Amino acid sequence: MTSATDAQAIYERLRKRESEQLLQLALSQKMAPICAIAGFDALQPDLQNFLGQDSLFIFVADKKESCYSLLLQFKKGVQICYSNLWSCKERFFQDCINSGEPVQHSPEELSKAGSSYPSPLVESIRNGNKTIVSMAFRIHGQYWAILSLGYKKLAHIDSQLVYRIKSIIPQLNITLGNILINEQSMHFTEVKNHISQSASHSLSTVSGNTNNTLRPQIIGNSVHITSLKSQLATVAGSEMTLLIQGESGTGKEIVAQNVHHLSARSQHPLIKINCAAIAPTLIESELFGHEKGSFSGAVKRKIGKFEQANHGTLFLDEIGDLPLTLQAKLLRVLQEKEFERVGGNKIISIDVRIICATHKDLQAEVRAGRFRSDLYYRISAFPITLPALRERQEDIPLLVHHFLEKHAGKAPLKQMGKKILERLRLHSWPGNIRELEHVVARAILLSEGPTIKNITLSADTGFTGASKTPDFSLQTLADFEKKYILWVLRSCNGRISGTNGAATILGIPATTLQSKMKKLGISKKFISQKD
């Protein structure tokens, strides 16, 4: 006869199994519609909740099983893609293939000199992971793939984790298969479109077959970037005209690529044109094309960017620099979906989604009479403002890591010293992400050892934002302390505690900082004010 205790134990096992199945079903339902790498961004919290990993890696081998590469990596909310290749004959790959079960790799194995393990796994151990658990599986019966999970606290793999890994593999197999098929199709379409274009691609290009185009990355997990990703996911599936605003160097083109990549037009071309980089007399011809003999030098018919982007997306960068005469013609195209080539009389109908970008304040330009108000309201159906880098300082370490990998080439990956990282975090970055990339690339070239210990930054003389260095003129110690604490608080967007909080930067407990703020009369209204 079954006792009450045995019955309770059976009930608990059944309840636990049902809970596991519900978690697996929920995750599988979210994975099922994904057909692009970018779709995994929103899936990271669910994967972490189900598998409990600190890092996730997915490797894919070629059909001949001669080499394999890292398809994607998730690390602290950021998606990273590598271009390295490793031999399928090496131990790591063979051990996973031959096992048929999840395989656990120890730090000693991964860190051993001359190890054949892929560098991302070795690097993850150096960054704090205590163990790596991997399992091999087939994608659509064609490609071998390996799922590797990094854990900082797991000592030994247990039966529950083995069950969860094996239960998610079938859906992962289907999802990755859909992604590979979709990207191969996109690659074929993009190459075909690229070949069909005219040779004049110095000012604008078709979205080609580079990794940055196929997999546009928006790196960061700050509040600003999380909100931005949510907005892009919302608007990408619509046909609304986007206006991307932000300072120079904030990544407006990457955002445009991301929207196109996530949209229903992703298998058609993304055409880019910089309105500020073309002479005013040539912009009309660049946008709408021209007929042979329509003006001096027009020796043959030219297809404009609108026609090239038909059924796809046209990205008009620096729209604020478009001459007034062209603004009226652009407005007509947006309203009527048709135009005529320069020197022609044939009406050409097009189906194009427009994404515009500018670093200018277009409302101020409208008030000054330099930009048409009707065009402004037409292109700003869904405005997006990108944050300056100084407003998302917590993303700087992730961006630095990305640029260290991007510019490493074939050389070993260099590390950035902690003091240098903190210096980078507190810099004002007037040139934003573009400036940061140049600084990192220059530091890689100038540093000799494996760690970058010195770095050259531009002067902040023209910066007047919240991170401006406090005035060091003669003053009382209390006044100086108040100004310095205010500066640090504003640099941290008012955050007191936590990893990126003011107390951590000042090197004092959060309670001590709160006491000092009370004593010095620092309140929230002072933090939000500018000097």
Describe this structure in words.
The protein is of the alpha/beta class and 531 residues long. The protein has helices at 4-31, 44-51, 91-99, 107-111, 119-126, 159-196, 211-214, 223-236, 252-262, 280-288, 305-308, 324-336, 362-367, 373-379, 396-406, 418-426, 432-446, 477-491, 502-506, 510-520, 524-528; strands at residues 55-61, 67-75, 78-80, 85-87, 103-105, 131-139, 143-151, 242-245, 270-274, 313-317, 338-339, 348-349, 353-358, 382-385, 415-416, 451-452. The protein has four domains: 13-183, 2-Layer Sandwich (Beta-Lactamase); 197-385, Rossmann fold (3-Layer(aba) Sandwich); 391-452, Helicase, Ruva Protein, domain 3; 477-528. The strands form four sheets. Strands 1, 2, 3, 4, 5, 6 and 7 form a seven-stranded antiparallel sheet that branches. Strands 9-10-13-8-14 form a five-stranded parallel sheet. Strands 11-12 form a two-stranded antiparallel sheet. Strand 11 (338-339) and strand 12 form a beta hairpin. 31% of the residues are buried.
